[in-house]
Amino acid sequence: MKLIILGLAVALALVAGWTDWRSRRIPNWLTVPALLIGIAANSVAGGWSGMKASLLGAVLGLLLLLPLVLLRSLGAGDWKLAGALGAIVGWRALLYLLFYSVFVAGLMALALVIYKRRIGETLRNIWHMLLALLSLRMPGAAVSLDNPESLKVPYGVALALTTVLFGLGEFWGVHWR
Questions:
Q1: Which residue pairs from 75-78 have beta carbons closer than 8 angstroms and sit at least 24 positions apart in sequence?
Q2: Which of 60, 86, 111, 121 has the fewest CB atoms within 10 Å, i.e. is most exposed?
Q3: Residue 56 confidence (pLDDT)
């Protein structure tokens, strides 16, 4: 049953990563049923403890990424994907997925900045965000997803890639813990 649940997570990640790559959106028709299926599958596999781990995973994914959504630095589809993945893999595995996906997204961002030759602008934006953070204020629309000129890394793709690698590692007996 663990492999089936892991397969669900990888399948969700592949579809979400593909749609995020193609349209920069992760639709509700994918994330909401995945969250419910994750809770149901874990409840069947583990009873009350499986349901509890699934619900904790969903809540953790949604709570940890909510501030980024509110700051307009992460899309709501990415946020709901994290909640759905948490419902499928549970809170412990989700923590690893989120941790490693930050590194994958960072590598994607670095590659994009270098490819687009916008290193100077990126460093200035990072400086503005740090100043805003230190002064406890919002950084402004120039460094948010609202700016049509800003470079955007599809975090759903990074989370999907991380999930696929995690799933392959678990299948082959390589644990990330």
A1: 75/24, 75/25, 75/26, 75/145, 75/155, 75/156, 77/16, 77/20, 77/25, 77/26, 77/27, 77/28, 77/31, 77/156, 78/20, 78/26, 78/155, 78/156, 78/159
A2: 111
A3: 98
103: which residues sit within 8 A by CB, 6+ positions away? none
The residue type at 117: R
What tens digit of pLDDT does each residue of 95-151 get? 999 999 999 999 999 999 899 888 888 888 778 778 877 777 766 666 655 666 777
Domain boundaries, the chain: 2-100+154-171
Tokens 């009873």 sit at which residue? 47
**Distance between CA atoms of residues 128 and 101, nearest Å:** 24
Token reading at 130? 């740090």
- Kindly report the backbone phi and psi dihedral angles of residue 26, in degrees, each rounded to the nearest multiple of 5, phi listed first: -120, 110
How far is residue 24's CA from residue 156's CA, in Å, rounded to a whole number? 9
Q: How many whole angstroms separate alpha carbon 65 and alpha carbon 84?
A: 13
What pTM value is reported for the model?
Answer: 0.86
Q: What is the residue type of 139?
A: P
State the amino acid at position 66 in one-letter form. L
CA distance 66 to 69: 5
